[in-house]
User: Which sequence fits this backbone?
C-alpha cells in the first residue's frame, strides 16, 4: 500500500497477558516466538537496511534472498517468479510446503517499498523500547518477518508437518508491472488453489484483522445549462450549470452519505462560462462573469466501496 507510516510497533504484551487462557501448544508457541525475538528483530533490521524500492530490482531480489534463506531452513521449497526485462520489475518470491492436513493457507507479503534509492535514506533506528523507524518497516517488512517468525516457531514444534502453506511475497506491490496478466497471473492462479489467504500488511492498529478492503474508483459529472443574465437565474433563464451540479452532488451526499463503507468525494469542481479540465492530470481552469449564468460545470471525484 502506498500509505506508509514510518514506524512499526512490536508488542507481545497482548499475547502475554492472555497466556493463561491459551492452549498449552499455543503457550509453547509464544515461548518459541519470544526465544527467537532478538534474531527476528535482526532479520527485520537487515531487510529494512536493504533499499528495495519497486524499481530497484537488485534490492528487491536481495530482500527476497534474505527471506528465502530463512524459509528454506524451515522446510519450504523456494521459487523465484521471474519477469521479462520489459516489465522492469524484480519478480516474486514463492515458498511452499505441501501436505494433506488441514486447510491450505496462502500467506501474503511484499518485498518492495515506495522508497527508491534516490530518496533520503532512513535506516533501521530504535526510538524506544517499543518503536522502531525505518524505510518500509511498517509497509511491510515487519509483516513479512512476522510470517517468518510464526513459521519458525511452528516448525520447531513440528506443527508444519504435512501442512500446505504457500508464502507469496510480491516484488511490485507498490506499483504493479504491466501487463497484469503476467505480473499477477501466477499469484491469482495459486491463490485459487488455497482455502484461506492471510495478508500480513498492517491494517487498523493492533490486534485487529481486516476481513475486507474497499475498492476505489472515480467519477466525472458534466452539467450543461443555458447561458443567460444573472438577473433571471430564479426565473425564466433557469438555474444554470453550477447550481445544477451543486444540487446533484449534494443530493448524492444527502441520499447516500449514511451508507456503510461507502464514500465519494468531489475533488475538483469547475464551473463558469468557459471551462477546461484535464482530470487525468487533476487540473483545469475556468473563466466567467458574476452576472452570467454558467453554461457548463465539470466535477471529478473518487468513490470507495465494499461491494
Ligand atoms: Zn504495502
Assistant:
Amino acid at each position: 500500500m502506498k500509505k506508509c507510516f514510518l514506524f512499526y510497533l512490536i508488542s507481545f504484551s497482548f499475547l502475554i497477558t492472555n497466556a493463561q487462557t491459551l492452549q498449552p501448544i499455543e503457550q509453547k508457541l509464544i515461548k518459541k516466538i519470544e526465544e527467537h525475538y532478538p534474531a527476528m528483530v535482526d532479520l527485520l533490521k537487515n531487510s529494512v537496511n536493504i533499499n528495495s524500492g519497486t524499481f530497484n530490482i537488485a534490492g528487491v531480489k536481495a530482500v527476497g534472498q534474505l527471506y528465502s534463506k530463512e524459509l528454506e531452513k524451515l522446510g519450504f521449497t523456494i521459487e523465484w517468479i521471474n519477469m521479462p526485462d520489459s516489465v522492469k520489475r524484480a519478480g516474486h518470491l514463492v515458498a511452499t510446503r505441501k501436505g494433506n492436513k488441514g486447510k491450505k493457507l496462502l500467506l501474503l507479503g511484499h518485498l518492495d517499498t515506495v522508497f527508491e534509492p534516490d530518496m533520503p535514506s532512513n535506516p533501521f533506528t530504535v526510538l524506544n523500547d517499543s518503536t522502531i523507524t525505518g524505510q518500509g518497516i511498517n509497509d511491510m517488512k515487519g509483516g513479512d518477518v512476522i510470517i517468518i517468525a510464526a513459521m519458525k516457531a511452528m516448525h520447531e514444534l513440528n506443527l508444519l508437518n504435512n501442512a500446505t502453506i504457500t508464502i507469496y511475497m510480491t516484488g511490485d506491490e507498490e506499483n504493479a508491472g504491466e501487463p497484469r496478466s503476467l505480473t499477477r497471473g501466477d499469484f491469482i492462479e495459486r491463490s485459487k488453489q488455497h482455502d484461506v489467504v492471510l495478508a500480513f500488511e498492517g491494517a487498523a492498529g493492533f490486534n485487529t484483522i481486516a476481513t475486507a478492503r474497499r475498492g476505489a474508483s472515480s467519477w466525472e459529472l458534466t452539467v450543461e445549462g443555458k447561458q443567460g443574465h444573472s438577473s433571471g437565474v430564479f426565473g425564466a433563464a433557469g438555474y444554470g450549470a453550477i447550481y445544477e451540479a451543486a444540487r446533484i452532488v449534494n443530493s448524492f451526499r444527502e441520499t447516500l452519505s449514511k451508507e456503510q463503507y461507502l464514500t465519494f468525494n468531489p475533488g475538483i469542481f469547475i464551473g463558469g462560462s468557459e471551462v477546461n479540465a484535464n482530470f487525468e492530470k487533476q487540473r483545469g481552469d475556468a473563466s466567467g462573469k458574476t452576472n452570467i449564468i454558467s453554461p457548463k460545470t465539470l466535477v471529478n471525484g473518487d468513490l470507495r466501496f465494499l461491494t
The pocket of zinc ion is lined by residues 1, 110, 139-140, 173, 201 (CB under 6 Å). The CA atoms of residues 105 and 225 lie 57 Å apart. The mean pLDDT is 92.
